[in-house]
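Anyone up for a design puzzle?
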């Protein structure tokens, strides 16, 4: 049994705070899937509920790439940064949701992580309160970027530009 102390209450509060912000991110990705695909809310919700978060992110950025014009340099940079941020936050979510943790007297949290892929790796990961707050802020920034990604998407328009493989159907018309 875990003794309830001020330190454990603080650790639980911080983990909960991070997971709440991650939940906002996941909801934004789910909404992006719905908006990019044009599916009814209930169908998109059922689809998203049955996909791991990483697959949702991959699908969102794949759909954006297939449905939109090729991005300019600034948009390409924003897309890459947003995807990277979402995946970084997901790694933190895996730690917060699946690792046991201890509260430290200085207000930080020590997570005990075990990874068994090619080899066994056991590590302690320490999050300070400031790091949790930074992750929460990053989650909010990523939510805003995902909303912007969908809002500012320029729909793909077919044209005689053979550098984009989606226009290859016009090549047959030229011969």
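Challenge accepted. My sequence:
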């Amino acid at each position: 049994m875990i003794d309830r102390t001020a330190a454990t209450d603080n650790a639980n509060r911080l983990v909960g705070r991070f997971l709440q912000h991650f939940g906002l991110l996941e909801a934004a990705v789910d909404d992006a899937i719905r908006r990019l695909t044009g599916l009814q809310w209930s169908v998109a919700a059922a689809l998203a509920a049955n996909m791991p978060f990483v697959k949702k992110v991959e699908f969102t950025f794949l759909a954006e790439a297939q449905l939109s014009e090729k991005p300019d340099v600034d948009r390409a940079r924003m897309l890459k940064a947003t995807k990277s941020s979402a995946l970084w936050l997901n790694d933190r979510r895996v730690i917060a949701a699946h690792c046991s943790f201890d509260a430290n007297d200085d207000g930080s949290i020590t997570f005990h992580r075990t990874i068994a892929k090619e080899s066994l790796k056991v590590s302690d990961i320490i999050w300070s309160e400031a790091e949790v707050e930074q992750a929460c802020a990053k989650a909010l920034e990523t939510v805003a970027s995902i909303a912007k990604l969908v809002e500012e998407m320029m729909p793909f328009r077919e044209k005689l530009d053979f550098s984009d493989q989606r226009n290859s159907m016009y090549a047959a018309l030229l011969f």
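A detail worth pointing out: Strands lie at 100-103, 109-116, 120-127.
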